[in-house]
Design a protein that fits this description.
The chain is of the alpha/beta class and about 220 residues long. It is built from 8 helices and 8 strands; from the N terminus they run βαβαβαβαββαβαβαα. Helix 5 runs parallel beside helix 6. The protein is globular, with a radius of gyration of 16 Å.
C-alpha cells in the first residue's frame, strides 16, 4: 500500500500556525494530523472546532482529525462540517462504535477507529469492513514527544494480517514516537500512514525528513 505522512500539529508553533501549515505544504506533507483532547478522556486539553475551522480555511491539505474525547458520537458531525477529511475516534470512548462510524460516514468523511496501546487488535476486528483506517497509538494518548512503545508492533502485524485475510484495503495509521528509525519498524509490521510531530517540525529539512519516513521498504 502507498505510504503517507501526517504531520502532528501538536508540535507546530501555534503562534505561527498559518506559516507552519504553509511549510507543511511546501514540504510535500500528505496530511495534517489534528489532535483533539478534552481533558477527560485524556489528561491534556488541546483545541477544538474553532481552530479546525480556521485551519480548513488556510489549507487544502487533507485534515486527519483524531478525537481523544469521551463522546465522539456527539461531536462527529460538527468536526466533519468544520473541515475534517478523516475522523479517528477511540474504541475505548463511551460512544457506540458502529453508530459513530455510521455518523462519520453519513457526512461523507472517512472513518477510523483508534486503539490505545493496551487495547488488543481483536477489539476492532468486527468493525473492519466499515472502516477506512485503524489508528494504532504507539504511545499513550494525551501528550506529544513520548518514546515509541515497541510492544505495539505485534498489534500492527495482527491487524494487517486480518485486513489482508478479509480482502480489505484499510489503512493502518500509527501515532507516537515516529522517526527515521521507528518508521522502518512500523512499516515492516504493516502500517502505511505515519503520524510524526517533533521529528518533522524539528528537522532542518522537513521535506527530506518526510521522505525518509514515507519511503517504501526495499523488497
Amino acid at each position: 500500500m502507498k505510504n503517507y505522512v501526517s504531520a502532528s500539529v501538536l508540535s507546530a508553533d501555534m503562534l505561527e500556525l498559518k506559516k507552519e501549515i504553509k511549510k507543511l505544504e511546501i514540504s510535500g506533507i500528505d496530511m495534517l494530523h489534528f489532535d483533539v483532547m478534552d481533558g477527560s478522556f485524556v489528561d491534556n486539553i488541546t483545541f477544538g472546532l474553532p481552530v479546525l475551522q480556521q485551519v480548513r480555511k488556510a489549507t487544502d491539505m487533507k485534515l486527519d482529525v483524531h478525537l481523544m474525547i469521551n463522546d465522539p458520537l456527539r461531536y462527529a458531525s460538527a468536526f466533519a462540517d468544520y473541515g475534517a477529511d478523516m475522523i479517528s475516534f477511540h474504541i475505548e470512548s463511551s460512544s457506540d462504535t458502529l453508530a459513530t462510524i455510521r455518523k462519520i460516514k453519513e457526512k461523507g468523511v472517512k472513518a477510523s477507529v483508534a486503539l490505545k496501546p493496551a487495547t488488543s487488535a481483536e477489539e476492532v476486528f468486527e468493525f473492519l469492513p466499515y472502516l477506512d483506517m485503524v489508528l494504532v497509538m504507539t504511545v499513550e494518548p494525551g501528550f506529544g514527544g513520548q518514546d515509541f512503545l515497541h510492544g505495539t508492533l505485534d498489534k500492527i502485524s495482527v491487524l494487517r494480517k486480518k485486513i489482508n485475510e478479509l480482502g480489505l484495503d484499510t489503512d493502518i495509521e500509527v501515532d507516537g514516537g515516529i522517526n527515521a528509525e521507528t518508521s522502518v519498524l512500523v512499516k515492516r509490521a504493516g502500517a502505511n500512514v505515519l503520524v510524526s510531530g517533533s521529528y518533522l517540525f524539528g528537522a532542518a529539512d522537513m521535506a527530506a525528513a518526510a521522505d525518509i519516513i514515507r519511503e517504501d521498504l526495499p523488497c
